[in-house]
Design brief:
The protein is mainly alpha-helical. It is built from 18 helices and ten strands.
């Protein structure tokens, strides 16, 4: 009988996970079978948590655009996604915010996790299995609260399953309280993982809990604590930076990946390849999607000198503007003359993928290469993973935390150089705090491009409204592929509202619970 119930339960979850989203139906796996079975049998418990993992947001499911298209690193070729209609025009309201879905999904998953955590002491597996499952639950609860924190600031901390008889109209906790709760969850998670069986990168782990702790503390300006957490990962992890930067984003099992969402044929795919392959008249043509900006291109240093193209003695040749750059440039960006999918891409005016101002053609004169599968037909479902946490970010989190705390700048430089060394880029030297702040921010921009870090970085650094961030440049090139003057022209002047440093609580939630209050600028 127990096996029959298990098959029924797993079947129900499979149907749920691949036929609907958490916003379209509210289904609590605990309701399918008795809690006695769910929270005693490790197989049921793992399946229960699988439903939560499948609801972790990722960058390939934002609805036709990638989040970096709402930064100075990218521009979406479609006119209608949220990046162009809301985020880049400061037109975010409590009714239309592209993050409105996060609130409901996060609290639905938190309710599931609260159920699990309240009952997990009934598990009848081995200590190693039980500890892993318990650790995963606390990691996931911390993860969802971390998403809420960076998006809305302080939010209600709910740690027990709410019933209709409970007071549901609770107010928001402070940002400090939410931060402390997340840290506590991640510490609890890490402690449980210390004596647990190992699992794949698609599940929580000690590395993931501590890496996320370092990130959250960095975002909240707790630099010394952040550095300590990240250093613990660097000192104790068995993971290493992969030698091939480009392959990290299209190959499951890359050694530096700490936490990711994986996909497979035929049931679990996405459409990143189709949405982001440039539109062209060549044999390969996608929907355009994310176009890197000239702003970003200009930040890639020259490989031999480690200098920006604009700097004296860099070795930059305007007649061959894409030669000799940081190898991560060629791994990330398609440019005029790129060879990809057996096509020579011509982004020059009149070329087979020429820059235009209408349709789905590139607006910037560049296409996205990073994360795109060259060996897969772009018209088929895509299967590359989305990386939530990886080791290179931990090195850069550690470096930034040290720089901002003003301590151990030499160790910060060593961490940055570890990342640069993998890219075969020249080492940087120790400088002032201000100089190193500039270097680590540039390194984050290059190393983590299009992984949804820039969007949050420019907010936590307070520079999202700066003119140089809001002025978007595209390549200025003639029909022969030669740069005109300095090779760039203004494509767009975006607008900004300081309210957008945080996002509004969904109006539907405010209507249900006036005790929440609204973030400043959205009242």
């Amino acid at each position: 009988m127990k096996n029959i119930k298990l098959l029924f339960f797993i079947g129900s979850l499979v149907i749920l996970q691949f036929s609907c989203t958490s916003d379209s139906i509210e289904f609590d796996p605990q309701g399918a079978i008795s809690s006695e079975v769910v929270f005693t049998d490790p197989a049921f418990a793992e399946t229960f948590l699988n439903a939560v993992y499948n609801s972790v947001p990722h960058g390939f499911n934002r609805g036709w655009y990638m989040l970096d298209a709402a930064t100075d690193d990218g521009e979406n070729s479609y006119t209608w996604p949220a990046s162009n209609t809301q985020l880049n025009t400061a037109n975010v309201t409590s009714n239309n915010s592209p993050f409105n879905g996060l609130w409901g999904n996060a609290y639905f998953q938190i309710r599931r996790l609260n159920n699990f955590i309240q009952n997990y002491d009934q598990l009848e597996g081995t200590d190693e299995v039980n500890n892993r499952l318990k650790g995963e639950a606390h990691f996931l609860r911390g993860y969802f609260y971390a998403l809420l924190l960076r998006t809305y600031g302080g939010v209600p901390i709910i740690t027990v399953p709410q019933e209709l008889t409970d007071d549901l109209l609770i107010g928001r906790n402070s940002e400090e309280e939410v931060t402390n709760f997340i840290v506590s969850e991640l510490d609890t998670s890490a402690g449980l993982f210390a004596n647990a069986e190992s699992a794949s990168s698609t599940r929580g782990s000690w590395d993931a809990a501590m890496a996320l702790k370092g990130r959250v503390l960095l975002y909240e300006g707790k630099f010394s604590e952040s550095a300590t957490a990240s250093k613990q990962v660097l000192d104790n992890t068995s993971r290493t930076l992969d030698t091939d930067y480009q392959s990290v984003f299209v190959t499951d099992g890359a050694s530096e990946v700490i936490f990711d969402t994986q996909f497979s044929d035929p049931d679990k795919t996405h459409w990143a390849n189709l949405f982001n392959t440039p539109k062209s008249t060549a044999s390969v043509s996608g929907w355009g999607g994310t176009g890197p900006t000239q702003n970003l291109v200009d930040q890639y240093e020259m490989k031999d000198t480690g200098l920006l193209p604009e700097e004296a003695g860099s070795g930059y040749d305007p007649a061959n503007p894409y030669n000799g750059r940081d190898p991560r440039f060629d791994a990330t960006i398609l440019y005029d003359g790129s060879q990809w999918k057996d096509v020579t891409w011509e982004f020059r005016p009149g070329g087979n993928a020429g820059i235009q101002t209408s349709g789905d053609w590139t607006r910037t004169g560049y296409g996205l290469k990073k994360m795109m599968q060259e060996d897969r037909n772009h018209g088929d479902g895509s299967t590359q993973h989305w990386i939530h946490l990886r080791l290179a970010e931990v090195y850069l989190n550690y470096a930034e935390a040290l720089i901002e705390s003003g301590n151990n700048l030499g160790l910060a430089v060593d961490a940055i150089n570890t990342v640069r060394d993998r890219a075969t880029m020249p080492a940087i030297a120790v400088g002032s705090q201000s100089e190193l702040r500039t270097r680590v921010r540039r390194e984050r921009r290059i190393e983590l491009a299009f992984e949804e870090h820039r969007f949050w970085d420019i907010r936590r650094w307070g520079i999202a409204g700066d003119a140089e961030v809001l002025t978007i440049y595209r390549v200025d090139m003639d029909a022969n592929g030669d740069l005109i003057d300095d090779g760039k022209e203004v494509w767009e002047n975006r607008t900004w509202d300081d309210a957008n440093y945080l996002f509004p609580i969904p109006q539907s939630e405010i209507d249900k619970n006036s005790n929440l209050g609204q973030n400043s600028g959205y009242e």
